[in-house]
């Protein structure tokens, strides 16, 4: 038997046929479908022409099914009803997102943009799972199966949509008062060659990151050496607090230690801002509702989180009242 995939027109014709067959009244069926009686008649006639048999016996007073029409109705009615349920459930997924969103996020960015939303998001979208990878490696979002990423602006692929999340960042050299008392204070980035520096290595890279400074409007790099190399910046900052050497980190990591006198900022004249954190994801015509929810809340910041909290409270109250 020759079969072919149904078209949108086939579905509409079958839906029209089932409506008429269920009520045996063209006017009532047309009203239920929200179409004119003439349009409904045309769809039924088109279906009869397509299958090559009459599906209804029509008189001026009554409508009845032919044997072929009765057989088709028995098989088509459950299918049409199941399709209607499936479409309804799909629309429901948009209103109440369900599924998993895979997020790749730089470690330091997680404290700023993910940790603050987790409670609110889970309350508002209990059927969405956030699968989060905290890693400073520059992953290929599409190839590695991620839906969205939060990373520094300087390492974003050009074919991704990138949304700025916060201000520019600034890397600063720091050391403990104890270290400076023992080894002296560098007065220029070149002086770091004579200091015990705590290195940081990008994940997947064999050599440590070269510290970057700016002089006369131009960036320049300094290769540093010392007793410790780590793949996480917070580990290096803590080592600096303990007097191991000079570390190089963002204000986010060092500000609390500077405020408490545990670290001293160095070489600030040569420290300059660079692009901060961005939310990035592939362009999509129809974005999955769970991903849309994640992006909206991360982009919206505190205002969006307040909205989520309000929505979650309203949902809880509605559930309690039901």
Concise structural overview:
With 322 residues, this protein is an alpha+beta fold. It has helices at 8-23, 26-33, 37-51, 67-95, 107-113, 118-124, 177-183, 233-241, 251-259, 289-321; strands at residues 56-58, 63-65, 99-105, 128-134, 148-152, 160-164, 169-175, 198-200, 211-215, 218-222, 228-230, 247-250, 264-266, 273-274, 277-282.
Give your account of this protein's structure.
The chain has 322 residues and is of the alpha+beta class. The chain is built from ten helices and 15 strands. It folds into three domains: 8-95, Winged helix-like DNA-binding domain superfamily/Winged helix DNA-binding domain (Arc Repressor Mutant, subunit A, Orthogonal Bundle); 99-167 and 277-321, Periplasmic binding protein-like II (D-Maltodextrin-Binding Protein, domain 2, 3-Layer(aba) Sandwich); 169-274, D-Maltodextrin-Binding Protein, domain 2. The strands form five sheets. It has a five-stranded mixed sheet with strand order 4-3-5-15-6. The longest helix has 33 residues, at 289-321. The protein is rod-shaped, with a radius of gyration of 32 Å. Residues 302-322 have low confidence and may be disordered.
């Amino acid at each position: 038997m020759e079969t072919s995939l149904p078209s949108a027109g086939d579905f509409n014709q079958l839906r029209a046929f089932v409506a008429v067959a269920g009520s045996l009244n063209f006017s009532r069926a047309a009203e239920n479908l929200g179409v004119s009686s003439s349009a409904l008649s045309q769809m039924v006639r088109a279906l009869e022409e397509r299958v090559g048999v009459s599906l209804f016996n029509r008189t001026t007073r009554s409508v009845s099914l032919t044997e072929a029409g009765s057989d088709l109705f028995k098989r088509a009615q459950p299918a049409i009803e199941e399709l209607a349920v499936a479409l309804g459930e799909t629309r429901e997924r948009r209103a109440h997102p369900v599924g998993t969103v895979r997020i790749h996020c730089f470690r330091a960015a997680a404290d700023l943009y993910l940790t603050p939303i987790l409670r609110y998001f889970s309350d508002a979208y209990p059927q969405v799972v956030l699968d989060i990878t905290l890693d400073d490696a520059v992953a290929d979002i599409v190839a590695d199966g991620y839906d969205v990423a939060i990373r520094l602006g300087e390492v974003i692929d050009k074919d991704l949509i990138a949304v700025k999340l916060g201000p520019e960042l600034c890397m600063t050299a720091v050391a403990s008062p104890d270290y400076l008392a023992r080894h002296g204070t560098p007065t220029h980035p070149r002086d770091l060659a004579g200091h015990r520096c705590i290195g940081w290595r990008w994940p997947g890279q064999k050599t440590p990151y070269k510290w970057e400074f700016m002089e006369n409007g131009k960036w320049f790099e300094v290769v540093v050496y010392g007793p410790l190399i780590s793949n996480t910046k917070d580990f290096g900052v803590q080592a600096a607090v303990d007097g191991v050497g000079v570390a190089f980190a963002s204000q986010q990591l060092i500000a609390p230690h500077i405020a408490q006198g545990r670290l001293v900022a160095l070489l600030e004249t040569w420290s300059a801002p660079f692009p901060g954190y961005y939310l990035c994801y592939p362009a999509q015509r129809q974005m999955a509702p769970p991903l849309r929810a994640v992006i909206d809340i991360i982009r919206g910041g505190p205002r969006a989180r307040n909205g989520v909290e309000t929505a979650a409270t309203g949902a809880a109250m509605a559930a309690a009242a039901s």
